[in-house]
Amino acid sequence: MTDAAAGALRPDGAPRSARPVRVRPRPAVRRTLPGLLAARLVGAVFVLWAVATITFVAIRLIPGDPAEAILGGPGSQTSPEALAAVRARYGLDQPVVVQYLAQLGRLASGDLGRSYALKQDVTPLLVGQLGGTLLLAALALVVAWLFALVLATWSTRGGRFAWYLGSGLEIVAAALPHFWLATALIVLFSVWLGALPPISTPGPAGLVLPVLTLAIPLAGFLGQIMRESLLTALESPFVLSARARGEGERGVRWIHALRHASLPAISLSGWAFGSLVSGAVVVETIFARPGLGRTMLNAVTVRDVPVVIGVVMIVAVGYILMTVVTDLAQWIADPRLRRR
Amino acid sequence: MSDLEIQADLGRQARARSPRRRRIGAAEALAGAFALFLITAAFAPSLVAPGDPLAIDPLSAFQPPNLAHWFGTDESGRDIFTRVSHGTGGSLVIGTLATAIGLGLGIVLGTMAGMLGRVVDFTVNRFLEVLFAFPGLLLALLVILVFGPGAQTATVAVGLATAPGYARIIRAQLISVRSAAFVEAATVLGRGRWQILVRHILPNTLAPLFVLGTLGIGQAVVWASALSYLGLGAAPPAAEWGAMLSAGRTYITSAWWMAFFPGLFIVLTAVTATSLGRALERRARHA
């Protein structure tokens, strides 16, 4: 997330008395769009390199011989010849530095290696899984935003009862673990009402429960954030001036205040992406839905290292793309960033 | 950004907004009562549920919730309320240890970044930024890939996965305290660097740490149970909440209570931690 966004959320927990004496105003982030994207590109290359390096180091920490792992784990009967052949095939007989550079080179060219367990190339395997997860995450994001918008606007208008109900709902929703929410939704909608399939079938009906499971906790977080910033926005001068110009309540709320109120929530998109990916691991497993998350979990269970690295790299690329989208969305929603 | 940073931020913002500002509201009182119940169940489970969590009674298998078995019984007739109560200790220990690991690492990284000058700050910050490209559960899964599944690994995994969030909050806290007037006064009075750090800066960052820890335990319990649920944490015979929920999933069409109640305790623990954390935050502010 960007420094500007962090500033907007005031992550300083200073006690009241601890006001800074020398106020050094942070220069407002007012860059041109190409400049912003160029800075992002440099950052992206660095993050991808660092993610690849951390993953490489972590994999080296796995106890045991990787060649044995490829041939079926430590218990299996393996001949020395077979081990030697596997080492040569996967480059494990090379010095560590050579392996590291070779891996970076392969990753840079988009080659994620060969799966130990499935004995097929990882890149086409994961690309095939990507669509399902993207569809799930994107739908969940849209639904979560809709829920959050409705909750935030309703609970700031409806008096004390709506306030308590709204904020209580949001706190509980944000605390709901995906695995339990999914179970509860399956019991309610599949077992008792019989309305929706308990596992994800192809087609829209099979998507409803997985999307709801991902969207509800996210909506809890987004709703809390939006309500706070909506209240701040409603007290601000530009809302007063809109009212003075004779704008109706609906116009003030939906056009002026809400646009301002959505900024902090937009700046959290990077986090929301991570939360959706984490959630996808659980949701895809529960609903038996093919996708990156379920592939990742299976790979961790059988210690299929190349697949794990592949998912980690794809998620890192996704995270970076999400930060770029966040920048663009802020650029569109916040005119102050555009003023030169 | 991490879940924790958002939680901490929300707690800070919500304080001024509540329409009525009583010191202790109904929600806090309820949360406190449930926390007391959890602590009792963790230290002396037989006080809460006198039965044996492993006592098998095949004749009363799959009973729905009733007066004798509040939360029903499982496939071998074990009482679910007893099992959930006896599982409290295990789940809370994992959550607390994971929080301690995350908070400890966060304190080390955050203090380094906040106190050791620009170069260290820059390096630590870039490192944290990279870690944020691994979403929490993915980082935990990577740790499990390296060290193998199990309750201990799951604890470490959750601790490591939450550390970046703690580090960033602590760094921000240190930096804001560092520029406070009383620190400047101490500098003017000629106090040494370490003396200022130990006597003035650290005490002022400790209270928020307490709040963070409370918020964090709820989150850590949820994550650790998620790992158990996925079959990578505590294994099924243990009366750990995530493992119980996972075991109950098999019978979800016929015995919903087997999965529902362990999960309900996870949710209640998370909500309790959130509201207590926020109440503590308000206390710290208005004290």
Automatic annotation (TrEMBL), chain B:
One of its GO terms (biological process) is transmembrane transport. The keyword Transmembrane helix applies. Keywords: Cell membrane, Membrane, Transmembrane, Transmembrane helix, Transport. The keyword Transmembrane helix applies. GO terms for cellular component: plasma membrane. It holds the Pfam family BPD_transp_1. InterPro entries: BP-dependent_transpt_permease (IPR050366), MetI-like (IPR000515), MetI-like_sf (IPR035906). It is found in: Cell membrane. Residues 88-277 form the ABC transmembrane type-1 domain. The chain crosses the membrane at residues 24-44, 92-115, 127-149, 209-235, 255-276. Its main location: membrane. It is a multi-pass membrane protein. Belongs to the binding-protein-dependent transport system permease family. This is ABC transporter permease. It comes from Cryobacterium fucosi. The lineage of its organism: Bacteria, Bacillati, Actinomycetota, Actinomycetes, Micrococcales.
